[in-house]
């Protein structure tokens, strides 16, 4: 069995797919179906009809059209799931607070992971990432896979981005666990913004190397001077990785912030899927 057919996570009973039916969520839809099939999981697909009181009053026909399109999109997903033998439930919410509805449903179904695109139909290219995606990642009760249109979840090559924080160490443990299940190649990177920080970057990688070796796994390491998100995404491209694993915050991450700026920029610029470990 190829690593593209193995479930990368030990226990994935429930997967929540968040989709708005736009081209930006097409990769997430495709990979959520593949993920659910590989993991024998129950798939829940949620889509939110984004409306507000004014639109409900003055444009009921528009809301009706939006709801119809949403139902058709979700029914298509359910049909594809049933063909693949995947149990699938559909969830439609209606209102303004899309990210809150996704989080509420994730908590309700006890989702093991959320799969979503990095921006929705309202995403503007100049923005780093869609606000709904950012809010979901920041408040999700579980790990989140962010899948770009052309992304996949085959996990042949995994890049661990670390700055030595507790968040990135947790991400490293998750990445190595996935690598062992999927027989993945593992690369770890730590980026120093100043020359004098390179020794700290080396220490971060030493932790990853020792952790990996204790699990009987090999890891290739790189300490690089530069801008963290640029170095991480460039290395991912050069090394042709198909999954980057990051923590929600880095060393400078503040609890009051929804997500660290490095993680946000990596998600926005990566050519491949990103797993954000909570």
Number of strands: 10
Structural class: alpha/beta
Instruction: Give the overall form.
Output: globular
How far the N terminus sits from the C terminus, by CA atoms, comes to: 29 Å
C-alpha Rg (nearest Å): 19 Å
Task: Please provide a written account of the structure.
With 278 residues, the protein is an alpha/beta fold. Helix content is 43%, strand content 21%. The chain folds into two domains: 14-146, Rossmann fold; 157-277, Rossmann fold, CATH 3.40.50. The longest helix has 24 residues, at 60-83. The radius of gyration is 19 Å and the shape is globular. Residues 123-128 and 250-258 have low confidence and may be disordered.
Brief descriptors of the model:
single chain; 278 residues; alpha/beta; Rossmann fold; 2 domains; 10-stranded mixed sheet; 9 helices; 43% helix; 21% strand; globular
